[in-house]
Amino acid sequence: MNSTGYGGDQCSIEIALRDRQSELRRMGLERLLSAVHGRELTLIQLLLEMGTDSERVESLKLYGLSGLAESCSAFIHERLGRADESGRRYAIIERYYGLDGNLPARLSAMAARYAISRERVRQIKERALATLRLPVFLHSLEEHIKGYVRLHTSGSNRGRSPASGSIKRSFRYSSHPELMMLADIEKYLTVAQKESLRILEAASTASVSGASGTGKTLLALLLARKLAEQGKRVLLTCYNRALANYLESVLLHQPNVNVASFHALCLRIGTSAGISIPGGWNNTVWEHRFPEVLEEALDAAPNLRYDALIVDDAQDIKERWRQALVRIVEPGKGSKIVYLVDDNPLVRDIRFEQPQVEQALTLTQNLRSPFSLGSLIAVGYEGQKPLSIVTAGGELPEYYLCDSADDVKRTIAHLIERLSSECGLAASDIAVLTPRLAKYSRAYGTTTRSWGRLVLRYSYRSGHALLSRVATFKGLEKKAIILVDLDRDFASMKEEDKRALIYQAASRASQRLFLIGDQNGFSELRNLGRQDIVPQNRLHTASPVSLYERLRN
Q1: Which of 118, 145, 175 is the last residue of a domain?
Q2: CB contact burial 149-169 (16+ within 10 A = b; e otherwise)
Q3: Most buried residue among 24, 89, 253, 434 by CB atoms closer than 10 A?
Q4: Per the domain annotation, does 387 fall within a domain?
C-alpha cells in the first residue's frame, strides 16, 4: 500500500513539475519576445495582434499555449543556428531569458560557464536579438505560429509533438522564399502575375518574358504545382544544373512533378528507355548526341512522355535542344508547353529564336532588387521596355579596391563577418560570384573566422557562403552578392560580355551588393556605367577614397 501511495504521489509531483517548467518556458519566451519587440508582449497579445480569432485563442489557452511556446522556442533555436553553428547565441539567450524552463541566468554566471568576459556574453546576446529583429525572421515566426494555430484548432496535432509538423514546414518555408510564397500566394502576386498565371493555365502554348527578378521562376513553380494538382504529369526543366537542383528542392514533395536540367533529363529518359548513353562528353556529344538520345528514348518508350512541359530560363536552351524537348509532351490531349525567358538580349545566345506560342506575355516589374541597385543593373540591360524596380530604398553597392589575392580574401572574410554580425545574415544568404571558373578566382580558398571556407556547391542550408561562376548562378538569388575578379581580365572582355556579366551578377542580390576589383576593372566599370564609383581603399584604411584619386596617383 505504501508503495502504491508513494507511486501516486511521485506521479503527481512529476506532473506538477512538468507543468511548472512549461509555464516557466512560456514566461521565458514572452520575456524574449518583449526584448525583440521593445515592449511588453505576451503570447496572447501576439496572437490577437496577428488577427487570430478569440475562439482559437481561448482554445490555445486551455490546451496548447505551452506547446506553442515550446514550438516557437524550437523554431528560434533553428533560426539562430543558421547564423551560428556553434550554438552559443541560442544557448545564451535560452539561459538569459529562461527558455529552458529554469529561472533566468545572469550574464556573469554565463561568462564563468563559457570562460569569456561578461561584456562578450552581452555582445553575443545583442547579436542574437539583432537577428531576431530582422523583418524576414519576424515574418517567418508569424507564419510558423499561424501554422501551429491551424494544426492545433483542427485537432490534427493531437498525439504528436507540437513541433513535429509545423516546425518542419516553417523551416522549409523560411529556407525558400518561393516556397513561403507558395504557401500563401495571394499576398505576394502582383496584378500582372495573377493575370499571367490565369492565362498560362488556359493556354496550350505560352511564353513569359521579363528581366531578372520579375517573378518568372515563381510563376513556373506555381504553374507546375497547379497542373500537378489537376493530375497532370509535369516536367520542369532548365539548362542550369544548380537552378534545377534548387527548383527540385522546392517541389520535392509535390506529386506528379519532375525537375531536371536538360542534360540530366536526357540521361534519365535515355537510361529508362534502355538507350545507349554516349561517352566522351565533348561539345559534339553535349550539343548534338544528348538531344538525339532524348528523341530515341521517346520513340522507344512513349510512356515516358509528360502532359506539361515548363522551361525556365528558356533563353539558355539551344534550338536543337528545344526541338527534342517539345517531343516529351504528349501530343494533343490537353498538353501544355510554357517557356520563361529573360528578355535581355545580352544574356541570350545570338542564335536564340523566340518560340512561336499562342500567348506571349511580358512582366516588367523587378520585384527582387532594391532601387539602390537599379542603375548598376541597368548597365547591362537592353530589354525592349525600361527596367522598372518597385522596391524602394536599399543600400548602395559598395566597391573595394584590392591589388592582391590576399587582399581579396581578407576583404571577403570581413564582409561575410560584417553581414553576419550587423545584418543577421547566415553564410548561406551570401554568394561570392566570379566571371571565371571558381578554382581560378582570387576568392578561391577564402576562409572566415565564423563560417569556415567558401563552398563550391549551391545550398539553401546554413553553414557556408558560396563561391560560384556568374554563369553557373543564373536563375538563382541570394540576399547578399559579392562580385569579385573585376580586374585586367574583366577589362579585356568584349563590352557586351562585360555588361551582361554585371547585369547577371547585380540582379541576383535581393538586399546587398559588393564589388571587389583593381584599378583596371573599376576603370572599365566606370566607363560602362558612366557613374561615379567610389570604392573603399582597403580594409585597414579608415576613410574611403575616390577611384579617380587612386587612378590619378
Answers
A1: 175
A2: bebbbeeebeeeebbebbbeb
A3: 434
A4: no
Q: What is the DSSP letter of 368?
A: E
* Interatomic CA distance for residues 532 and 509, integer angstroms: 21
For residue 263, give the nearest of 234, 235, 233, 241 by alpha carbon.
241
**Phi first, then psi: what are they for 492, rounded to 5°?**
-85, -5
Query: Grid coordinates standing for 255?
Result: 506529386
Co-location of 170 and 205 in the same domain = no
Higher pLDDT residue, 419 or 280? 419
Q: Residue 77: CB partners within 8 Å, gap ≥ 6?
A: 90, 94
Q: What is the DSSP letter of 327?
A: G
How many CB atoms are closer than 10 A to CB 541?
10
Per-residue exposure over 335-352, b if at least 16 CB sit within 10 Å of its own CB, e if not: bbbbbbbbbbebbbeeeb
Q: Are 118 and 111 in contact (CB under 8 A)?
A: yes
Q: What is the phi/psi pair of residue 209, to 5°? A: -110, 150
Q: 466-491, pLDDT tens digit by residue?
A: 999 999 999 899 999 999 999 999 99
Total of domains in the chain: 3
**pLDDT at position 399:** 92
* Residue 40 DSSP class: -
Q: Are residues 159 and 187 in the same domain?
A: no
Q: Report the residue count for the chain.
A: 553
The whole domain housing 443 covers 394-552
At 358 the three-state DSSP class reads coil
Phi, psi of 490 (to 5 degrees): -60, -45
Q: Express each pLDDT in 218-245 by its tens digit.
A: 999 999 999 999 999 999 999 998 899 8
**Residue 355 and residue 416 in one domain:** no
pTM across the whole model: 0.66
List, in order, residues 6 or more apart from 452 with CB less than 8 Å away: 463, 464
Q: What is the rounded (10 degree) CA torsion for 358, 363, 364, 368?
A: -160
Q: 133: which 3 cell numbers? A: 529583429
Enter the C-alpha cell of residue 246: 534548387
- DSSP per-residue string spanning 480-544: EEEEEEESHHHHTS-HHHHHHHHHHHHTTEEEEEEEEE-HHHHHHHHHHHTS----B--TT-SS-
The closest alpha carbon to 175, from 518, 463, 442, 512, belongs to 463
